Amino acid sequence: FHTGEREEKCIIEDLPSDTLVVGNYKIQRWDIHKHDFLESAPGLGMFVTVSTPSGEVLLSKLYGPQGTFSFTSYLSGEHIICFQSNSTRFVAIAGSKLRIHLDIRVGEHFLDESAVQAKDEVDEVSVRLEHLIEQIHHVSKEQDYEREREEKFRKTSEETNSNILWWAIIQTLILISVGIWQIKSLRDFFIAKKLV
């Protein structure tokens, strides 16, 4: 994505609890003379801030022009990940555009291939099996989180449907009572004018 030098950009990641999140990024600065983004942005860094659904800051750190950040969510919900460059130029002259390449991996457990190659065949199978078991646990945790969200959504939908039903009943009673009052008023008017 593109951003200004002093501009903050945020993304929202909906995460289950106890989930590892790893992000890799790289900043490129716009060069006015070449009319292209430079491969690297020396001297430019990136503030990365991660907030939990309750608003608590989980991570706030300054990184270089490219880097890796990671955190583990301890609450389920929408986590806000914000990026802002550490440019010290004044806003009036900090009109340079930045391109940020971002790769976020959620719940991924990395398999160390060098450790696998160093061990014999039995150990390799055992390490790969452990890796698969970790992935199964992550998928199971993700499904539990989605199930919780679905239950919350269903409960909200049922409450809304119930409120709509009661609102319709109240509207019907109001319309019937207004209709009866109008008929009574018209009847009394016609009797008073001796038209009936």
TrEMBL record:
It comes from the Eukaryota. Residues 8-106 form the GOLD domain. It is a single-pass type I membrane protein. It is found in: Endoplasmic reticulum membrane; Membrane. The keyword Repeat does not apply. GO terms for cellular component: endoplasmic reticulum membrane. Keywords: Endoplasmic reticulum, Membrane, Signal, Transmembrane, Transmembrane helix. Pfam families: EMP24_GP25L. The chain crosses the membrane at residues 164-183. The keyword Endoplasmic reticulum applies. Belongs to the EMP24/GP25L family. This is TMD11 protein. The gene is Tmed11.
